[in-house]
Design brief:
The chain is an alpha+beta fold. It is 30% helix and 23% strand. The protein folds into two domains: 253 residues, Sulfite Reductase Hemoprotein, domain 1 (2-Layer Sandwich); 119 residues, 2-Layer Sandwich (Sulfite Reductase Hemoprotein, domain 1).
Length: 471
């Protein structure tokens, strides 16, 4: 007779399914902590507490990710429970980071992103859904064993400011016949999984607000129950969407939820919230560019101070790794104060360029993605070209979505004269809103040739822009 052994986990039970350390392999960091910031919205008090955690546990280093998370490194495993307890007190959880599992299992719903100006530039507050659904999925035992991770985003500003089409499920907010709702885009993922990197396709249906929660839940359930568990490479939702096709997926959803109105909507319009603008309440927002999303605990505290001094104390993190201040009365006073700690420059180059954290995952050597982005920005400055969006990924996992940038770079290791050398491939012409993937421009570039070819590419782009202007 088999004896069943039960273990009382006590207080630790509240951490199960809600907290996880990720695995690092570079710069002497063994573990990272990725803190979910639902919809990217955080107040100054919580921001200061995260700064304290980064100082105590993570050498005072902080990163904003391209999914509106906050990430710490150099986390020791022996500090995990204490750190989880501190996060629990703040009210935050983490991604589950299933990289340690070799099989297709234990995927989770990642931090759900939302337009950083949700509820500020119009009264369509899509962040409500992002926060509600994040709360529902986090720690929910019915959704802790997805075949692979599942990414969701909500846009409601009239354009795509989130790269919605790289998500497994992107919800594009519209108003139709005086009713608000969403057009879903499904099956996006630009990482190195099968069948290939691809952008999400429109389901061509209208999901009214009252059905949003059940709709999203149903799509995640379909991923859980039908996506491949054969191996990790085949387990992303895009593989199922490709195998089934849009019509079958739509039918499966409607079997559970009823028929949705059809709508012809194939591509979202691009939008950004760079610089500053007017809110519906007469106050202003201002987006501070943070190159590569890298900050220190001191700068995080400074940001909290500025949010309180000049606004309501709330900030919004963006998928471009930036910080958006909201409820600002005087933009110029805020910018003048920010210049005490930040170098403020205007242009798409600074606001919309991103880089992944390749130096910590151990998949790149020097130059790492963030360091390379900085050098490429310097080259663009010398050439006077600031209307470009550059994304730098450290490897084929495409953490910085290099395929959907004006210029994208992806790291790889190549063998040169018997030695392994860090190199990069360059992509050009990507556009997530136009559902256009970038094409390979040049491959296996390393050393000074990487920079000389990049400069040559800028000349080609510049000459093309001049010719178009004349035409």
């Amino acid at each position: 007779m088999t004896e069943i052994v039960t273990i009382d986990l006590g207080e630790i039970s509240r951490f199960i399914g809600r907290y996880s350390l990720g695995r690092d392999n570079g710069f002497d960091s063994l573990h990272f902590l990725r803190i979910k910031i639902p919809a990217g919205q955080i107040d100054s008090e919580k921001l200061r507490k995260i700064a304290e955690l980064s100082r105590k546990y993570g050498r005072g280093y902080v990163e904003i990710t391209d999914r509106q998370d906050i990430q710490l490194h150099w986390i020791r495993s022996e500090d995990a429970l204490d750190l989880f307890e501190r996060l629990y007190e703040i009210g935050y959880y983490t991604d589950m980071c299933g990289q340690g599992f070799s099989k297709a299992c234990f995927g989770d719903v990642r931090n759900i992103t939302a337009c950083p100006l949700s509820g500020k530039i119009n009264d369509f507050d899509v962040a409500i859904y992002a926060k509600h659904l994040t709360s529902y999925f986090t720690g929910n035992k019915d959704f802790l064993d997805l075949p692979r991770k599942f990414k969701i985003g909500f846009a409601g500003c009239g354009g795509d400011c989130l790269r919605l089409t790289i998500n497994d499920l992107g919800m594009f907010g519209i108003e139709r016949e005086a009713e608000r709702g969403f057009v879903p885009f499904v099956g996006g993922s630009v990482g190195a999984s099968q069948p290939e990197p691809m952008l999400a396709k429109s389901l061509c249906i209208f999901v009214p607000e009252k059905k949003v929660f059940e709709f999203v839940k149903t799509v995640v359930e379909i991923h859980r129950d039908y996506s491949s568990r054969e191996n990790k490479a085949k387990a992303r939702f895009k593989n199922l969407v490709t195998q089934w096709g849009i019509e079958k997926l739509r039918e499966k959803i409607e079997e559970k939820l009823g028929v949705f109105d059809r709508i012809t909507f194939e591509k979202p319009e691009y939008s950004d919230h760079n610089g500053y603008g007017l809110q519906i309440d007469g106050l202003y927002y201002y987006t501070l560019p943070v190159w590569g999303g890298t900050l220190s605990s001191e700068k995080i505290e400074f940001v909290a101070d500025m949010a309180e001094k000049h606004g309501s104390g709330e900030i919004r993190l963006t998928t471009d790794q930036n910080i958006t201040f909201v409820d600002i009365a005087d933009i110029e006073r805020l910018k003048k104060d920010l210049e005490r700690q930040f170098e403020i420059k205007e242009g798409k180059l600074y606001f919309s360029s991103i880089a992944c954290t390749s130096k910590f995952c151990g998949k790149t050597r020097s130059l790492h993605a963030k360091d390379l982005l900085k050098k490429l920005i310097e080259i663009c400055e010398r050439k006077g070209m600031k209307d470009l969006r550059i994304h730098v990924s450290g490897c084929r996992n495409s953490c910085a979505c290099h395929q959907v940038a004006d210029i994208g770079l992806v790291g790889k290791i190549v063998k040169v004269d018997g030695k392994m050398v860090q190199a990069y491939d360059i992509y050009v012409g990507g556009d997530f809103a136009k559902l256009k993937m970038g094409r390979v421009y040049m491959k296996d570039l390393y050393g000074e040739r990487l920079f000389s070819e990049f400069e040559r590419l800028l000349e080609v782009i510049g000459n093309g822009a001049k010719a178009e202007a004349k035409g």
